[in-house]
């Protein structure tokens, strides 16, 4: 009997173990889902182009690939089984809730058999998770930091025997600097759309109602395995050194800073999370320095780092070369080649992939289906129109929405501390926010967007954090250069022209006092709440009401 491996659009790795045991590969390009929401044109282009490239790549590697274009999986499976009535399909269990069972029903309904196997696309398995929760948890709330340490111990990644490399598990306090004004982040590597991507994009924009930038300008995502590997290499060589230090910063006109931009490739299956972790761990072994031991904004420090024993050697660096000190590029030139990797950069990145990404996947599995509709704060407002058109005077919000409209991307802190923070203190419905993230971001899939948006960003449930990620304008002010150019005054809470975040924040704390004061982690914030007198509260309420009206009318 022959076995067909059915690969979904987020399982595009041509080096999967599962491929070795398959006689045939099936890919079904089911596009009907894209009629249901106005997805970002770049997201649809990316997903369909990557599938088509994977088809060609797999064929070149000698696989027998059937590629079907259909409206739905049902139609595609029916067409596939029509001339192979008793076929057995094998599928790596998809991460989205219930998807494996739904697909099994579809196959069975058409007379075939579907065998679900473990998904190789994650670092850890459900069994690994249960081994951990069995020991550590009884009340079904989970904490990333505990999981992360457990996985480090189990995998030996960045470990020195039983101890974490450098002595600390987490260098988050070295992840919170903002770059100097004249710092130019190294340009991320972009991949020019080829003929197949251009053809796919043309079809996408004709066929679907899309949202955001519908030209291919700005589309530079890797769409093949080869490009994904090149993107990883480029990140590790040129951008990782600054990743740690500026991980939480926001800078106007710099949407990418030193972020890896790898989530679309990892989530599509073009890149294995292990490869990303291994590459960063190896870079640290070869070019590592202590946390903060390398200043990416200073050419001089760079040279010192290169000359020190900790720095890299050989001619694959600019160490000792004259180029580094003269010429017009300064720090950016030096930066063009492999530089030292501080521990806070390596650990910071590995925490995101090995810690957060895996954690979110398992929390989602455990907390669904309730997670999708969780709304413990009973927030019901519609998203303000600014989320759709980016039209607002608030610099932070207009920059973040602008990045999403342009690239289908915003980095983590914009997602958490601007886009979801504003929706949270404004009182937006977490489900609507989740839909918005899902259709707007090139890396969005239900399994990863939902825990990030509904649990982490909206505090719809306490399954993964005991307090909300809510803040006033002061956080944005500390971590960005936005407030200096914003017409709203971050220093003021009330009255016309005051930063909208401020009144909304205090009003949010007051509105949700019963639940939040009781969490025990908001003590300091509620001591500030308690210190405000009645007149202050009246002004805060007035301003919050006014801000909500303006936002709802698209006038903020
Ligand atoms: P980097 O900053 O370079 O981080 C490295 C990698 O770590 C990422 O590529 C990603 O694979 C992983 N990672 C980091 N944080 C998370 C996390 N919280 N959950 C899962 N993986 C993580 N990530 C998605 O992949 N898809 C989403 O739809 C998504 N929606 C989000 C919504 C909100 C409200 C928030 C707060 C976060 C969301 N994230 C999502 C997580 C994170 O913001 C993105 O993974 C990251 O910004 C992607 O950009 P990057 O590759 O440049 O990341």
Automatic annotation (TrEMBL):
Residues 167-187, 304-333 are annotated as: Disordered. This is Cryptochrome/photolyase family protein. Signal peptide: none annotated. Pfam families: DPRP. It comes from Halorubrum tibetense. Gene3D superfamilies: 1.25.40.80, Deoxyribodipyrimidine photolyase-related (1.10.10.1710), DNA Cyclobutane Dipyrimidine Photolyase, subunit A, domain 3 (1.10.579.10), HUPs (3.40.50.620).
């Amino acid at each position: 009997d022959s076995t067909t491996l059915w690969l979904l659009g987020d399982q595009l790795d041509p080096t999967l173990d599962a491929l070795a045991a398959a006689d045939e590969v099936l890919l079904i390009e089911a596009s009907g889902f894209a009629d249901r929401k106005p997805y970002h044109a770049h997201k649809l282009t990316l997903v369909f182009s990557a599938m088509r490239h994977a088809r060609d790549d797999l064929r070149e590697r000698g696989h027998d690939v059937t590629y079907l274009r259909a409206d739905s999986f049902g139609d595609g499976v029916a067409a596939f089984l029509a001339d192979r009535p008793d076929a057995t399909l094998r599928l790596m269990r998809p991460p989205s809730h219930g998807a494996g069972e739904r697909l099994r029903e579809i196959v069975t309904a058409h007379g075939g058999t579907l065998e679900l196997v473990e998904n190789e696309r994650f670092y850890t398995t459900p069994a690994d998770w249960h081994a951990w929760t069995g020991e550590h948890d009884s009340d079904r709330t989970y904490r990333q930091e505990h999981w992360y340490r457990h996985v480090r111990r189990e995998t030996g990644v960045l470990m020195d025997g039983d101890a974490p490399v450098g002595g600390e598990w987490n260098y988050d306090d070295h992840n919170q600097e903002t770059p100097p004004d004249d710092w130019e982040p190294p340009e991320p590597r972009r991949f020019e759309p080829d003929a197949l991507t251009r053809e796919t994009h043309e079809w996408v924009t004709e066929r679907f109602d899309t949202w955001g930038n519908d030209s291919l300008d700005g589309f530079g995502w890797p769409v093949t395995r080869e490009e994904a590997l090149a993107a990883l290499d480029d990140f590790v060589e040129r951008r990782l050194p600054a990743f740690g230090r500026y991980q939480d910063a926001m800078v106007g006109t710099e949407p990418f800073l030193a972020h890896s931009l790898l989530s679309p490739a990892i989530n599509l299956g073009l890149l294995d999370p292990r490869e990303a972790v291994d590459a960063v761990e190896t870079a640290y072994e070869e070019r590592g320095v202590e946390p903060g031991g390398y200043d990416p904004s200073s050419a001089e420090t760079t040279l010192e780092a290169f000359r020190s024993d900790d720095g890299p050697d050989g001619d694959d660096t600019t160490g000792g070369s004259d180029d580094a000190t003269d010429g017009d590029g300064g720090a950016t030139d030096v930066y063009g080649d492999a530089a030292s990797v501080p521990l806070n950069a390596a650990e910071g990145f590995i925490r995101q992939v090995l810690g957060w990404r895996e954690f979110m996947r398992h929390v989602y599995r455990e907390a669904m289906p309730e997670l999708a509709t969780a709304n413990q704060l009973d927030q019901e407002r519609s998203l303000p129109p600014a989320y759709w058109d980016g039209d607002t005077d608030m610099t932070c919000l207009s920059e973040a929405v602008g990045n999403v409209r342009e690239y289908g991307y915003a980095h983590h802190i914009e997602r958490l501390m601007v886009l979801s923070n504003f929706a949270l203190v404004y009182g937006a419905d977490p489900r609507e926010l989740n839909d918005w993230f899902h259709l707007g971001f090139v890396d969005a899939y239900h399994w990863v967007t939902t825990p990030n948006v509904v649990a982490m960003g909206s505090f719809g449930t306490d399954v993964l954090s005991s307090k909300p990620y809510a803040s006033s304008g002061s956080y944005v002010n500390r971590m960005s250069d936005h407030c200096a150019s914003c017409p709203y005054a971050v220093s003021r809470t009330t009255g016309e022209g005051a930063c909208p975040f401020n009144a909304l924040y205090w009003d949010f704390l007051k509105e949700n006092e019963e639940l939040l004061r009781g969490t025990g982690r908001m003590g300091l914030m509620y001591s500030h709440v308690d210190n405000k007198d009645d007149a202050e509260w009246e002004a805060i309420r007035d301003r919050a009401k006014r801000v909500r009206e303006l936002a709802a009318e698209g006038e903020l």
